Amino acid sequence: MDNLKIITNEKESETTAPTVVARMMHIWWQLLSSFFLVGLLGFGGGFGMIPLMKNITLGNHWLTASQFTQAIAMGQITPGPVAISATFIGDRAGGFVGAVLATIAIFLPSILLVILLTHVYHHIRNIPGLQAVLSATLAGVVGLIAAVTLTLGRSVIITPLAAVVAGVTIFGVLKWKWPYWAVIVTSAIVGALLLRP
Predict the structure, then answer these.
(1) How far apart are CA 130 and CA 56, in angstroms?
(2) Are the beta carbons of 77 and 44 closer than 8 angstroms?
(3) Residue 80 DSSP label
(4) Contacts of 183 (CB under 8 A, 6+ apart)
(5) pLDDT, tens digit, for every residue of 52-84?
(6) What percent of the chain has pLDDT over 70?
(7) CA-CA distances (angstroms) from residue 105 to 54, 82, 90, 110?
(8) In this predicted model, what pLDDT tens digit does every residue of 121-150 receive, in sequence order?
């Protein structure tokens, strides 16, 4: 009877290991392809990528909406672009390998496009209408950033003190040109001291 148990357990572990590996490979492929797409279509920098990242992340159930907001916050409080939030999302969905793949994937399209454009820009910069296309694209990106701001604002500004911090920040950045790093550090200190549950 014990031998039968051992054989059954061995068979279960044999079928379980490939299943786990296949599942992780599937998640890693999803992270790689999804964040490559985000990097390719996320015009306007990191803030333009947030709606795409949110749709992909929540659609694949890698994070909850609250965890996604935390991922964006992590991208803001660490040096570098907000797109580094892909590292956090990749880690949560697929561990260390997922973090590496998501990070590489989100930056790879930009790297490839910049390499390509450096070789062809002097040939295409004088094409009539190109500046109009770029201006309209930038206007669309501003609209995307405004939509992201409103969406994140509704989920983050939930107390009167948070509203005051947001309002003072907007005024300080627009009126006195506060540097972004100072806003992040000051907001973190205010949060640690006053916004604790």
Answers:
(1) 31
(2) no
(3) S
(4) 169, 172, 173
(5) 899 999 999 999 988 998 888 888 888 778 888
(6) 90
(7) 16, 14, 10, 10
(8) 777 878 888 888 878 988 888 888 888 788
Calculate helix-pair angle for 180-194, 160-176, nearest 10 degrees: 160
In contact, 81 and 45? CB cutoff 8 Å: yes
Domain parsing of the chain, residue ranges = 2-125
> What sign for the dihedral angle of Cα 57, 58, 62, 63?
positive
Residue 139: partners with Cβ closer than 8 Å, 6 or more residues away = none
Which token pair is 40?
């390719």
The span from the CA of 39 to the CA of 26, in Å, is 20
**β strands within the chain, DSSP E:** none
3-state secondary structure of 83: helix
Return all residues near 41 (Cβ < 8 A) that are at least 6 apart. Answer: 52
User: Residue 79 has what DSSP assignment?
Assistant: S
